[in-house]
Every structure is written in structure tokens, then in C-alpha cells.
Design goal:
With about 280 residues, this protein is α+β, with helices and mostly antiparallel strands. The chain is about 25% helix and about 20% strand. The strands form 3 sheets. A 4-stranded antiparallel β-sheet has the order 1-6-7-5, covered by helices on one side. A hairpin with a 3-residue loop joins strand 6 and strand 7. The longest helix has 20 residues. It is elongated. The structure holds a DNA duplex (16 and 16 nucleotides).
DNA sequence: CATTTCACCTGGTGGC
DNA sequence: TGCCACCAGGTGAAAT
């Protein structure tokens, strides 16, 4: 499941490979689900536009686009006038392939590019979303929550102050922090030595600062390793990540804790499978 | 308003 | 061997 490190890895890969190229032709599957903007309008809007840059915000991939009419006149670095926003959901992939590469099952979008490659969106469970924004008429995409890689100690602590829900549920709330999902919530709570069910309001300032530092460290480490491939995650080239090998608790139910050998436990918190060490996380 | 539950999806798994 | 119930979880809408 793509979370911040996986989405960051994909966005970087796509950026390197498609920056400066124009979208030549757009094909969408007939499935209704993945489109936040209706497919017909989305396809018409995307065609002929140059891709100026690709970056990540929260779990969203944002492609900054130039204007269609004078696409060849736009230079990389000029102001974007539109955006194509991709959310991968649970099983979404965004791949840069050759034009003649075999089309994977559950391919929902194919954007052929001026450089002779293709940008493909593949998503078996169709939880992903594709959206187009015309920046002349609407605001640019902005994740609702704070960015975990840059948020400071005070702002981080303020997110959780006065809340009664569990810290695990709060970490998963995208309106508070953008980009944290089940894997990195569990891993950062382990690193910080905090029980997932602990109420936000009962966390001390020291614990919150430990959590912020742990989250930052875990996310940066995961980005360096190209993300976690736990189900079928791959980067823009179809290459798997390596951070799953470093997981301390996620999907390690019953296995010995890497620090104290106590078997890792799995419980349900806020309806999500949650993994923790009963000894290291007090 | 804050918080919880559920529906949306398909592939993989385990029981019989 | 085959079939089927069930689970995985990001998100947003509905319920509490």
C-alpha cells in the first residue's frame, strides 16, 4: 500500500522520466470508479499539455501541466496552468513504460508522451483517484494535513492536543498529518516506544517529540530504500522497494521483537490491523 | 463537533 | 482439486 515513502519514490521516478514531455494521446478504461474528474473531460483536458514537473503532496502525486495550445513553447520551470492529480489508493501503480510494453491487467489510464514513452495507471482494486484541475478556475491541489517531513515540534504537538482518540487513529487521519498510513504509523510508534491505543491527550510532550523524531527517521529511511513492498508496490520502473526488510512490527505478528525478543502482537485499532511490541511499547 | 463504522474493490489465503 | 467465505486497508460518506 503506497504511503508517503512509496509515493515520494514514484513521484521522483516519474518526474525524472517525463519532465518536459508533452501528453500526446490519452486512453482511459471504461470502468467508472477511478475518476474524480469525468473521464471524457479529463482526457480532453490532458491532451497536448506539457508535463512541467511531478511531485508528491501527502499521498498524492501532482503533475504540473502547461497550456495545450503552445505546448512546445513552454519551458521547464515556467508556471503551471493545470494539474493532474493521482491518488494510488491501496493498490495503484503509476508506471513509465515503452509504448509497446504489454498492458497489465487493471490498467485504467494510458498517456502516450512526446518522448516515445507511456505513463500508465494500474489499479486492481480501483481505490485510486484521478483528478484534473484547471488553475485558472480552481485552486491548486493542497493536502489537508501537515507534511510529516518538515513539521516542527510545536506544530506537531498541537495536532494531538486535547484529543481523546488513540494516537494510532490520529496518525492515520490525513487531515492532521498527510502521508502516514498503516505501515509507518505502526513502525514509528514502535520506534517511539508508544502503545498504539494510547489516547492522544495522555501523551506527554516528551513522548510527542519522540514520536515526531521517530516518524521523521522512519520515513526518511524508507525513502532511501525506495519504500516498502508488502503487497504489490513497485516504483515508476516497476522495481520493488526494500524497507519491508527493515520493518520491526508491521506484519511481524508472532515473530520476536528485534530489540527484546518478545513476540509481536496484532490487535485492531480504529478498525485497522495494528502491530506492536508489548514490552518495548509501554 | 468529534469520533466510529461501513462501503467501495479484487486478489490471496485458509478451511472443508 | 475446487469452491467459497473472509480479510487486507485508504478514503469519504453516513451514523452515532
Amino acid at each position: 500500500m503506497p504511503e508517503l515513502p512509496e509515493v515520494e519514490t514514484i513521484a521522483r521516478g516519474v518526474h525524472e522520466r517525463v519532465r518536459g514531455q508533452s501528453i500526446v494521446q490519452v486512453w482511459f478504461s471504461s470502468h467508472r470508479q477511478p475518476f474524480k474528474t469525468p473521464a471524457v473531460r479529463q482526457a480532453r483536458e490532458l491532451e497536448d499539455r506539457p508535463i512541467l514537473a511531478v511531485h508528491r503532496t501527502g499521498k498524492h502525486i501532482v503533475c504540473e501541466l502547461g497550456s495545450a495550445s503552445g505546448g512546445h513553447l513552454d519551458k521547464v520551470g515556467s508556471m503551471p496552468v493545470a494539474q493532474w492529480i493521482v491518488h494510488l489508493g491501496m493498490t495503484g501503480r503509476l508506471l513509465v513504460t515503452t509504448l509497446d510494453a504489454p498492458v497489465a491487467l487493471h490498467t485504467h489510464a494510458r498517456l502516450s508522451l512526446s518522448g516515445g514513452k507511456e505513463l500508465r495507471f494500474v489499479d486492481p482494486r480501483r481505490f485510486g483517484r484521478l483528478e484534473f484541475r484547471d488553475l485558472d478556475r480552481e485552486a491548486g491541489f493542497c493536502a489537508p494535513g501537515a507534511e510529516p517531513l518538515t513539521i516542527g515540534p510545536d506544530a506537531f504537538a498541537a495536532l494531538f492536543r486535547g484529543r481523546r482518540l488513540s494516537i494510532k487513529a490520529a496518525l492515520l487521519n490525513q487531515a492532521l498529518l498527510a502521508g502516514v498510513g498503516n505501515i509507518y504509523a505502526d513502525e514509528s510508534l514502535f520506534q517511539a516506544g508508544i502503545r498504539p491505543r494510547k489516547s492522544c491527550g495522555r501523551l506527554t510532550r516528551t513522548e510527542l517529540e519522540r514520536l515526531r523524531a521517530a516518524l521523521l527517521q522512519v520515513l526518511e529511511h524508507a525513502i532511501r530504500l525506495g519504500g516498502s513492498s508488502v503487497s504489490d508496490y513497485v516504483d515508476a520502473d516497476g522495481v520493488r522497494g526494500f524497507f519491508q526488510l527493515e520493518h520491526c512490527v508491521y506484519q511481524r505478528t508472532g515473530q520476536p521483537c528485534r530489540l527484546c525478543k518478545t513476540p509481536i502482537r496484532r490487535i485492531l485499532v480504529a478498525g485497522r490491523g495494528t502491530h506492536y511490541c508489548p514490552r518495548c511499547q509501554s
